[in-house]
Amino acid sequence: MPDLNSRGRDGEIVGLFSPTHGRSCERHQVCGRQVAVGSIVKIKREVLMVDEDLGVEGEENAPVRLVPETVLKAVLIADGQESCHVGFLPRHIALRPMEVERLSGKFAQVLELYDDLDDSKHKRTKSARNQGMASFILMENIQELE
């Protein structure tokens, strides 16, 4: 069993409140808003074409150079099947090939939505900076009752 941090979390999902990169559908303007504590997600490897200068301020009409980037996306499971793409695992995780291999295809349960935490200004601020965040535990790491 992998080491878990002191609170029993395996990782975080970012971008829950953004509709870009496939995080909206015909039913939802922003699919990540469907995520609740207890939701089940599947982590999936995908390659997206992203702006090479993503995050860099530039001219409004500047040419965009698209490059492939491996991402780990979180797909909501509803009624026993894949539903909406709701977010991503942080980029620093997806840039590590061994982490991509370890996490791809795994199921996880959402433990907390950072925007809903009254006692953690730090996590609410972090969530606002990352357009909505949640923590999760991999289903394989859920403790058995004794």
Q: What is the CA–CA distance across the termini?
A: 18 Å
Point out poorly predicted stretches: 1-6, 55-59
What value does the average pLDDT take?
A: 85
Which strand order does the major sheet show? 1-6-5-2-3-4
Strand content: 25-35%
Helicity, in percent? 10-25%
The main pleated sheet reads as: 6 strands, antiparallel
Helix/strand order, N-terminal first: EEEEHHEHE
| Overall 3D form | globular
Overall number of structural domains: 1
- What's the total helix number? 3
Q: How many strands in all?
A: 6
- Cα radius of gyration in angstroms: 16 Å
User: Helix/strand-derived class?
Assistant: alpha+beta
Q: Can you describe what's shown?
A:
This protein has 3 helices and 6 strands. The chain has about 150 residues and is of the alpha+beta class. The protein has one domain. Strands 1-6-5-2-3-4 form a 6-stranded antiparallel beta sheet. It is globular, with a radius of gyration of 16 Å. About 25% of the residues are buried.
